[in-house]
Write a structure and sequence with these properties.
Layout: H1 6-34, H2 59-66, H3 68-101, H4 109-121, H5 124-137, H6 144-169, H7 172-180, H8 185-196, H9 198-214, H10 217-222, H11 230-235, E1 238-239, E2 242-243, H12 245-265, H13 267-274
Antiparallel strand pairs: 1-2
Helix pairs in contact: 1-12, 3-6, 3-9, 4-6, 6-9, 7-8, 9-12, 9-13
Length: 281
C-alpha cells in the first residue's frame, strides 16, 4: 500500500482543520457570548478570549434560569418531544413490523410504504393551516397535547419506514422458531424481534426526538404562551432595542444540552443502529 504524498496529506489535514473550525465556531461563539458581559458584547472583537479580552460572568445564565418563560419552555420541550417520540416509536414499530411481515390484500404493502414516505417528504407548511383549524375546533391550541399530536403525526412516517426496513433485515426464521416453541405472534414480536431491533429502535427514537426538539413552525403557530417550546423562545430574543445576542447564546446552549446528553448516553446504540444490516455475512 503506497503512502500518500506529503503535499496531499498536508492539504487533507488543512481541509479537515478548516471544516472543523467552521463547525465548532458557532458553539464557541455561543459559549463565549453567554459568559461575556453585555456591555462588551459589541466592543470585544476577534476571538473574544476569556480572561484575556474580557472577564467572564454568569450573569446571563443566572438571569435566564430565573425567567419563568425560559423554565416553562424547557419543560414544554422535554415533555412534548419525549411523549411524541414514544408515541411515534410505539405506533411506528407496530406498523413497520406489519408491513415487513404481513401481506395486505386490499392495498399492496409497497403502496402503503410509498404513502408513508410521501407524508415524510410533505412540506409542513402545506398543512399548518388545517392543523391550526383542527386544533382550534378541538380546543387544543396552546396546549402540550396539541403539539404532541402534531409532532407525532410528522414523526410517525419516519419511524414506520425505518422500522419496516429494520424488520425486513431480521431473519424471519428466528420468529418462526419462536412460534414453533409455543410463542404467540405477540410473544415472538416482543421476545425476539424487538430485542434484535433494539439498537436501531434507539437510533430511530433519537432522530425522532431531534426532529421534535428542533421543530419551530408548528410550535410557533399552535402555541402562544403556555405551550411555547425552546425554538420559539430562542427566536423571541429580539427586543425593541435590537437582537439580544447574550440571551440567544444562553438559550441556544440550554436547548442543545438535553439532546446532546441523550446522544452521549446512547452513543453505542446509535453506532450499532446506524450500521444495522450494513454488513451481511
Amino acid at each position: 500500500m503506497n503512502n500518500p504524498k506529503p503535499g496531499k496529506r498536508i492539504l487533507s489535514i488543512l481541509l479537515v482543520l478548516i471544516f472543523s473550525i467552521w463547525a465548532i465556531f458557532p458553539f464557541y461563539w455561543a459559549l463565549v457570548t453567554s459568559i461575556k458581559p453585555r456591555i462588551e458584547t459589541f466592543t470585544v472583537s476577534y476571538l473574544s478570549v476569556p480572561f484575556l479580552q474580557f472577564q467572564p460572568t454568569l450573569e446571563n445564565w443566572i438571569e435566564e434560569i430565573q425567567v419563568p418563560e425560559m423554565r416553562r419552555a424547557l419543560v414544554n420541550s422535554v415533555m412534548v418531544s419525549t411523549v411524541s417520540t414514544f408515541l411515534a416509536l410505539f405506533l411506528g414499530t407496530m406498523a413497520g413490523y406489519a408491513l415487513a411481515r404481513f401481506k395486505f390484500h386490499g392495498i399492496p404493502n409497497k403502496d402503503i410504504t410509498v404513502w408513508f414516505l410521501s407524508q415524510r417528504v410533505l412540506p409542513p407548511v402545506v398543512v399548518v393551516i388545517p392543523f391550526f383549524l383542527m386544533m382550534k375546533a378541538a380546543n387544543l391550541l396552546d396546549t402540550r397535547l396539541g403539539l404532541i399530536l402534531a409532532y407525532t403525526t410528522f414523526n410517525l412516517p419516519f419511524a414506520v419506514i425505518i422500522m419496516r426496513q429494520i424488520f425486513k433485515e431480521l431473519p424471519e426464521e428466528l420468529e418462526e422458531a419462536a412460534l414453533v416453541d409455543g410463542y404467540s405472534r405477540w410473544g415472538a414480536f416482543f421476545k425476539v424481534a424487538i430485542p434484535l431491533a433494539a439498537p436501531a429502535l434507539a437510533s430511530t427514537g433519537l432522530i425522532c426526538l431531534a426532529f421534535a426538539w428542533n421543530e419551530f413552525l408548528f410550535a410557533l403557530v399552535l402555541a402562544s404562551r403556555d405551550a411555547v417550546t425552546m425554538p420559539v423562545v430562542i427566536a423571541g430574543a429580539e427586543h425593541a432595542r435590537g437582537v439580544q445576542f447574550w440571551f440567544i447564546a444562553t438559550r441556544s446552549l440550554v436547548a442543545m444540552a438535553v439532546p446532546t446528553i441523550l446522544a452521549l448516553l446512547a452513543q453505542r446504540f446509535i453506532v450499532r443502529g446506524l450500521t444495522f444490516g450494513a454488513i451481511k455475512g
